[in-house]
Amino acid sequence: MPYDPSAFPPFAVTVDLVVLTVRRHALCALAVRRGEPPFQGRWALPGGFVRADEDLSQAAARELAEETGLRAHDPAVPAQDNGAHLEQLATYGDPKRDPRMRVVSVAHLALAPDLPAPRAGGDASNARWAPVDELLKQGGYGRDGEPVAPLAFDHAQILADGVERARSKIEYSSLATAFCPTEFTVGELRRVYEAVWGVALDPRNFHRKVTGTPGFLVPTGGTTTRQGGRPAQLFRAGGATLLNPPMLRPEV
Amino acid sequence: MPYDPSAFPPFAVTVDLVVLTVRRHALCALAVRRGEPPFQGRWALPGGFVRADEDLSQAAARELAEETGLRAHDPAVPAQDNGAHLEQLATYGDPKRDPRMRVVSVAHLALAPDLPAPRAGGDASNARWAPVDELLKQGGYGRDGEPVAPLAFDHAQILADGVERARSKIEYSSLATAFCPTEFTVGELRRVYEAVWGVALDPRNFHRKVTGTPGFLVPTGGTTTRQGGRPAQLFRAGGATLLNPPMLRPEV
DNA sequence: GTGTTTATCGTCAAGCAGACGACTATGATC
DNA sequence: GATCATAGTCGTCTGCTTGACGATAAACAC
């Protein structure tokens, strides 16, 4: 059977981004306000069409840079901290997920430290970091009492999947360091785990665990006191990507 | 900005299947022989175009049924064994992955017990179960001394990703039972782990572990002697999907 | 100095994992 | 039928990890 362009239905392919960070002890995601129908005025995940000559990961990295200014981490330079962590999450292709046409969206998950301020095409009012519980609270009310509309399209599902991926992945990988600046303390790393998992961890056992896991942390020699209290040692992420033994999420 | 069909490039969207089973102590994958260019005559993963009105998981289930006769497991009936396990794996969209046109493939992973014989459109010579090491052995020689051509397209990468997913997922989930018939013995389950991981496990510690993990196995009361030796108790898969504590893959 | 905060080290008991001995129940072989 | 081989099942022991928590250290605020 020769190649017949009419033999398959045409699809639009997009990438959507779940960009997570930890701000003020809460796991937050980047949301942008839609400027056009459908779902005009509603919050959504950042994303856009994949271009004709682009790989999926390239498209995701481009969108991430456009929305946040973050460069994606180059997997070829693992030891070096040259940007945010970016990985493919899952693909969503319900025929009715976009009322305009048949769109298949390849969602990606990005983890970033707190630093950057949102910038959606230069217009800051159309992009914000929002706590994920707030974004996922369907039909509830935000911290300011305003009613919260659910995210556009199936983005609530995508965000929930991304959060779940992040929660489970910091158990057995060193990914939690992607939420930290280049140099960080054990306490800062612990607060990342606490924010992502939504639990309190024992500082003493946590310290013993992470410093005892080979390849997880390497001391830089410096110390800091930016948290108040006794100065803490500074660390960088070690070469290990898989943690053995893994971090254990406390019982549900 | 109104909807403009020319604003995005059209893609073809396919599903490809990594169907794994355990045969004769080896992890095997379903391969089909391509009957048309490109890669005519080469082995490939089964798959096909997503139809215009189909969800991705529906398309994957349809292809699985067409190629193997297996029904996909309905997630709404978790305790019941009504088919093979099927889950989305990852999406592959390199612009050059198909020389004919821009194709994005949403790969799925299926795990099945040994029973079914391949049937690719009724022609058995164009479908076979092949050990995954053989399919992934680039440019080597098969067990029969024949030279082995690498899989078509990027299917070697997809298969490798699927195998890795299966290897890690049987650690912390009860998915290994998807490789077993409805009723099975602890020894049969152990041989699944040994085949998928490619290691030897201590029968005594394995027995203690799986029978001690709550929700993993439920005894049916029957026994069997089909393996020779002392009769073994028969079990069904329990309700648990996540294993706590997980099975531990021995050191590399 | 005193109190507060955070970091870090130590101790102890419970539980789990790996190594491996021992026993059991079947079929195969002589 | 005795013996052997095979596979399944139960125990034991030892070392390591974990979770709970006491104790000490080093900063800052007053």
Question: What's the quick description here?
Answer:
Chain A is an alpha+beta fold.
Largest contact between protein chains? Answer: A-B, 32 and 32 residues
The largest sheet of chain A, given as strand count, sense and whether it forms a barrel, is: 7 strands, mixed
**Assembly type:** homodimer
Structural class of chain A: alpha+beta
**Count of extended strands of chain A:** 9
Protein name (chains A, B): DNA hydrolase
GO molecular function, one term (chains A, B): hydrolase activity
Organism (chains A, B): Streptomyces caeruleatus
Family (chains A, B): Belongs to the Nudix hydrolase family.
Provide an overview of this structure.
The structure is a homodimer of 252-residue chains. Chain A has 252 residues and is α+β, with helices and mostly antiparallel strands. Chain A folds into two domains: 12-171, Nucleoside Triphosphate Pyrophosphohydrolase (Alpha-Beta Complex), CATH 3.90.79.10; 173-237, Winged helix-like DNA-binding domain superfamily/Winged helix DNA-binding domain (Arc Repressor Mutant, subunit A, Orthogonal Bundle), CATH 1.10.10.10. The first copy, chain A, is 23% helix and 24% strand. Chain A contains five helices and nine strands. Chain A has helices at residues 56-68, 132-136, 155-172, 186-197, 203-212; strands at residues 12-23, 26-33, 43-44, 47-49, 85-92, 103-111, 127-131, 217-224, 232-237. In chain A, strands 1, 2, 3, 4, 5, 6 and 7 form a seven-stranded mixed beta sheet that branches. A two-stranded antiparallel ribbon of chain A has the order 8-9. In chain A, a hairpin with a 7-residue loop joins strand 8 and strand 9 (232-237). Chain A is globular. Chains A and B meet through strand 5 of A and strand 5 of B. The structure holds a DNA duplex (30 and 30 nucleotides).
